[in-house]
Every structure is written in structure tokens, then in C-alpha cells.
Amino acid sequence: MNSEIVIKESINELSEYIGQLVISELSCKSKLNIALSGGSTPLSMFVYLSENFSSKIDWEKINFFWVDERCVPPDDDQSNYKLANDFLFKKVNVPRENIFRIFGENEPYYEAERYSNIIKDNVSYNVDSFSFDIVFLGLGEDGHTASIFPEQISILKSEEICEVAEHPISMQKRITLTGKLINNSRTILFLVTGVSKQKVVSDILSKTGDYSKYPASYINPNIGKLIWLMDKPASAGLDGFNLIQA
Questions:
Q1: For residue 12, what is the enclosing H or E element?
Q2: What pLDDT does 246 receive?
Q3: Which of 123, 229, 116, 222 is nearest to 176 (CA)?
Q4: CA pair distance 12, 125, nearest whole angstrom
């Protein structure tokens, strides 16, 4: 696995790293296709980028997609699209035609097919699947990533581009990219913060405990690289690893 572990003091320092990474990627490509995740950690990243990279990043050269979305309307507070729109897109110069949201208000199985076609029409094919330039992933305390939960490992191996997933507790339906598509990305970024993620991070990276039950442990890029971006509380159990620290 072509992977790195990068540790910073805070989410702001992680966001600075991400901003510089995007600038570097744009320096050698005319267009970037980026897939975003939701959650509190990306929210902090969106705020930082909007405040510090509004004029540094050429936002017109980025197409935005989503790793997953809850089956709710775009104005619902649970919507991953709404999160990015409120805290990033409204504050930087992103053309609306560059934003390819998942229609959470649609019938889920229809939407999974529709969004798969959107990706086919707008993302380049590489090796054996379509390939995003950058994919942002989060990590749940149960080891889930995207909307692929421990009880739904089959989604990781699906030949489809998108699948319908179901939250194991709320039973809320979600649209998610599959493991095959995620693993075919050029750069995969796990953005992980907080002491509550420490054990699952340690289990996955050291391949101990119940790591094989965690969907996140199956993220292993085929053609690109995987970068774990963590603050110090999340990385505290990683003694002995080759770490890149601030």
C-alpha cells in the first residue's frame, strides 16, 4: 500500500495541509474531480479553506462530488451537500455547474443509478473503474467510512459505482460510493480527529483487534496513494509507525 501518516496539532493545521495539497494538484492538472464527505471534521475544514484559501485556490477548476449522502432534501441539516454549500461554496468562487450533488430527495435506488451515470459522464476512467483525483473520507468509531457500515462489507466489493446503504441504528437510507470506486482514486485522504477515534485508527493501521470488521480497513488504493491526516489525539496510539509530524 502506498500510504502516508501525517499528524498535525489541530484541524486548522490539517486544513492548511489540504489547501496546499489542492494547490499542488492544480498546478499539474487543468481540472480536479474531488469527492467530499460530511461530518463535523469536514465542516471545520470547509470553514478554514473558505477563510484562508478563497483567493489562493482556483475554485473554477474543481468539480465537486460526494462520497455519500443521506436520503434527505438538500435544505435538511443532515444533508452533506448543505454542509459544504453553507460553509464553503457560498463563500468561494465555485461555479454552480461544477457542483454535482447527490439528490437525497430522490427515490434511493433510482438516485444510486442516476448518480452513477453522472460519475460516468464526468470522471475519467483509469485501469478498471472511474477515478477521482481526490477523495475525502471520514472514520466512524465503529470503523465505518463513507456510508459503508460493518454489517455491509459487501458494498466494498460491489461492481457498481454507487449503492444504497442503510444506517444500522436509525435505518436511514443513504447513497454511497462503493469500495471499488474509492480504491481507484488517485489520492485518498482519511481526515480523522479526536481521541474517540484513537482505538479504531490504531487497530486498522496495526492490523490488530477487530480491524477486519472495519470497512475502513479495506481502503487500499489500486493506483494512487492513501494519506491518513490526523490530529495528535487521534494518533496517540501509533507509537512505532513512520509518522510525518508538524
A1: helix 11-26
A2: 42
A3: 116
A4: 33
CA angle 211, 217, 218 (to 5 degrees): 130
Q: What is the pLDDT of residues 27-36, one digit of tens each?
A: 999 999 999 9
Give the pLDDT confidence of 39-66 residue by residue, as tens digits. 889 999 999 999 999 999 999 999 999 9
pLDDT of residue 78: 96
For all residues of the chain together, what is the average pLDDT?
94
71: helix, coil or strand? coil
Q: Which of 1, 43, 9, 2 is nearest to 245 (CA)?
A: 9
Kindly report the pTM of this predicted structure: 0.95
- Cα separation, 82 vs 89, in Å, equals 10
Using the structure block, give the residue that is written with the C-alpha cell 475525502: 136
Count of residues making up the chain:
246
Using only C-alpha atoms, the chain has a radius of gyration, in whole angstroms, of 17
Residue 46 DSSP symbol: H
Contact 35, 177 (CB under 8 A): yes
| Residue bearing cell 485501469 | 127
CA 216 to chain centre: 11
Quote the cell numbers at residue 203.
487497530
